[in-house]
Design brief:
Elements (H helix, E strand, L loop, with lengths): L3 H25 L10 H4 L7 H9 L5 H13 L6 H31 L17 H28 L3
Helix pairs in contact: 1-5, 4-5, 5-6
Amino acid sequence: MLDTTRILRDGALLSLVASTYLLVLMRFNLRIFLGHLPKEIQEIVPPRSAKERWMSVLLGLLIGFPLTSALLWRTATLGSHSFWDLFAYAFGVLFIFNLVDLLILDWLIVCWFKPHWVILPGTEHIVIPNPYLHHLKEFLMGTVGLVIVGLAIAALLSIQF
């Protein structure tokens, strides 16, 4: 049976931890997120350095949270979850974070508050047409990616080991 309370709780926990982590990274090196910035900005700033590319790869480690949590959930309930329960759990936890990322980090902080540290030096004059739409598109692409990640986590956890 699908445990929506656990999905909401774990999604909120991931959102809190990951959002804090992302805000710290944004504050100290926004260039890590260069690939997620609008093309108008990407076209005028130098590409990421090897160190910045490596640091952006480390962001992918956030995927370990729903994987570990789903594994613990499966183990605690003696593996009684179907493939689709595991998928719904992994996708749900990640989707909650994706939604928090869109609403709080992207729309509220980046688009509305616009603190000076979310603007790369040399791009202050760039006007992004409808930045909210840019972030919505990123959110939708991320959601498609989360379906794939959720399926991979469910497949991995469905293997009896």
